[in-house]
Q: What sequence folds into this?
């Protein structure tokens, strides 16, 4: 049996954990630079606040209905996510963190559980008691069915935060009931484009998709859809390690809080992104062979400008100093005087496994594992940016705009909640 535990409106609920004054108010959270609405709590959803709409378009609507607006507080969300995952991990023998608010469970040696519905409530109560975050819990015979059950636990009527998809001995089928109520795009792995193509064949919901011929689906749409059909019928096709495979590309990009024209500021921003990419690459045990560096003005500008450059390392590396150093080699090809830069970023696009690296007989390796280990340990202990390359100095000119930022209750001494008795 597989399970999926997913937080309800995670970002918005995180904002309420340490601020009792807004727990019973509608809350929305904005994306980078306070651009769009990315998270909406249930109370705000009842008011009709949509997700991914630019903030300026609904600013007056939010003010009229006294909706609490917050900037994305990633430090707070990451810390609460770690706490939530530590609680969830206690309730299975195999646990994989799928995203910041989702966690898959595999109950390989938990055959003693007789009532999965009750066990789901045990998990929900534990997470709520220790983190004050509400979660939905879904169980199924495959990863896709567990994902569908989780969707039902949170969004379909008749469920109380826990859903189990199984065919019982008396002939009743929760699988049919749930999949019939799910649209195609609610099924894991079916996006908008694929959903439109399937709907043209008369396939209207998840149950219709489950009743298709796997071979016919493969011939028309490929092996991924064939696997989805089999998984919806309780036939495991996705291996446990497939959902946690290493990323093939790792990027760090961001728009500026205000336009950047100074070359030194732009170079510092690119260096900071390169440093972030290097840290992420080491975390998953990979090396970078090719690095993409780009910067652009706004696509809404009259004279839109975008320039990118690919730097190739002689030997794949995870050394922050070498990765950041690549910025200097290509910077003159990217920067143009007079351009008001709106966005920039860096990405590793050709990654290799650090354990199976092909060495070069005539070129020395650029890696320095002891130095990078020390670098990561210091930043992990004292916070990201405690140690940084000099060229990546912080600047308010390119720092992210967060005008509605809540305190970092769990990561800054000055922001720790105070209780007055």
A:
């Amino acid at each position: 049996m597989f399970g999926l535990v997913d937080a309800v409106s995670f970002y918005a609920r995180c904002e309420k954990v340490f601020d009792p004054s807004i727990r019973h108010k509608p809350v929305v959270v904005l994306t980078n630079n306070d651009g769009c609405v990315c998270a909406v709590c249930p109370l705000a959803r009842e008011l009709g606040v949509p997700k991914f709409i630019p903030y300026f378009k609904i600013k007056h609507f939010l003010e009229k209905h006294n909706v609490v607006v917050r900037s994305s507080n990633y430090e707070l969300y990451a810390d609460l996510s770690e706490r939530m995952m530590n609680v969830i991990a206690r309730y299975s023998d195999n646990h994989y963190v799928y995203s910041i608010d989702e966690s898959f469970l595999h109950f390989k040696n938990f055959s003693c559980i007789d009532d999965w519905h009750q066990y789901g409530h045990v998990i929900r109560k534990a997470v709520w008691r220790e983190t004050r975050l509400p979660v939905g819990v879904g169980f199924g015979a495959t990863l896709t069915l567990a994902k569908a059950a989780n969707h039902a636990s949170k969004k379909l009527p008749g469920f109380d935060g826990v859903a189990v998809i199984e065919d019982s001995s008396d002939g009743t089928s929760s699988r049919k009931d749930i999949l019939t109520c799910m649209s195609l795009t609610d099924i894991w792995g079916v996006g908008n484009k694929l959903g439109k193509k399937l709907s043209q064949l008369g396939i209207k919901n998840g149950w219709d998709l489950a009743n298709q011929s796997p071979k016919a689906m493969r011939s028309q749409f490929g092996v991924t859809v064939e696997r989805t059909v089999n998984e919806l019928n309780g036939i495991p096709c996705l291996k446990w390690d497939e959902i946690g495979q290493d990323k093939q590309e790792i990027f760090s990009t961001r728009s500026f809080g205000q336009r950047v024209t100074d070359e030194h500021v732009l170079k510092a921003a690119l260096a900071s992104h390169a440093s972030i990419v290097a840290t992420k690459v080491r975390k998953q045990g990979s090396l970078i062979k090719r690095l993409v560096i780009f910067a652009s003005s706004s696509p809404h500008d009259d004279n839109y400008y975008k320039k990118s450059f690919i730097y190739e390392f002689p030997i794949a590396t995870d050394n922050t100093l070498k990765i950041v150093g690549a910025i200097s080699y290509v910077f003159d090809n990217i920067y143009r005087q007079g351009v008001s830069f709106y966005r920039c970023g860096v990405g590793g696009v050709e990654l290799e496994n650090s354990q199976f690296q092909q060495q070069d007989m005539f070129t020395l390796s650029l890696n320095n594992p002891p130095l990078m280990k020390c670098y990561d340990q210091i930043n992990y202990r004292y916070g990201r940016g405690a140690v940084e390359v000099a060229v990546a100095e912080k600047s308010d000119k390119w720092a992210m705009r967060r005008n509605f930022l809540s305190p970092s209750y769990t990561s800054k001494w000055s922001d720790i909640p105070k209780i007055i008795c």
Q: What stands out?
A: The first helix runs from residue 10 to 17.
